[in-house]
Specification:
Layout lengths: L1 H7 L4 H12 L8 H14 L15 H24 L2 H9 L2 H15 L4 H8 L3 H11 L4 H30 L3 H24 L1
Length: 201
């Protein structure tokens, strides 16, 4: 898999793949968007020429990769938010049948009302938390100014963290399964911690 990602680093397709994966995983949380971002950043670090001082032109740009992941994250959040906002009674009934979504919607509404949008940022790191928060904010008809800035901060925080994990892992350990594995463990650890904190919020 590392070789497959590496073969794409010389073309804009790596950014398209990252953008599509990050945007769509708000609807299909099982998509490995975090894995793809980390692997692209690992490939970038391994081919960055940090050791030789020569930087090839065919590696992903770290800043562009971060911007791509952030933008796709925010756009995905906004699409889910707007769909939930326009969902009407049918979506409300679907949410009511899910204790997890109903509870999350209540917590989110309370948190946003008192300016505690940090919950949106935390949920971005938790498995499926982004989906729950985006849909919950839309279904609860939270105002865009209460949700969008926090969604942008969440997307940027998640993208920077994921890219940094991949880049540092690749810089220290090279484009190996060990580097990817260590980076993914750190990503999953952040997700577990975020899930714990969201449940206690």
């Amino acid at each position: 898999m590392l070789e497959s990602v590496g073969s794409l680093t010389g073309s804009p397709w790596i950014y398209a793949m990252v953008a599509a994966s990050v945007l769509l995983d708000v609807f299909v949380p099982v998509l490995p968007s975090g894995v793809l971002v980390i692997m692209a950043a690992t490939a970038a670090a391994a081919g960055s020429g940090a050791a030789t001082g020569h930087v090839p032109a065919d590696v992903p740009d770290i800043l562009l990769l971060t911007l791509c992941a952030t933008t796709a994250s925010v756009l995905g959040d906004l699409v889910a938010y707007r769909l939930a906002w326009r969902g009407g009674a049918r979506l409300d009934r679907a949410l009511a049948r899910s204790p997890r979504l109903s509870t999350a919607q209540e917590r989110l509404g309370t948190a946003l009302a008192r300016g505690g949008g940090a919950l949106v940022v935390l949920a971005r790191f938790a498995p499926a938390g982004r989906s729950v928060v985006s849909l919950g904010a839309g279904a609860a008809r939270r105002r865009p100014r209460e949700f969008v800035p926090w969604s942008a901060l969440a997307g940027l925080s998640w993208a920077m963290y994921s890219v940094a994990l991949g880049y540092l892992g690749g810089h220290w350990l090279g484009a190996t399964w060990l580097a990817t594995g260590v980076s993914l463990l750190a990503l999953f650890a952040a997700g577990a911690a975020a899930t714990y904190l969201v449940r206690r919020a």
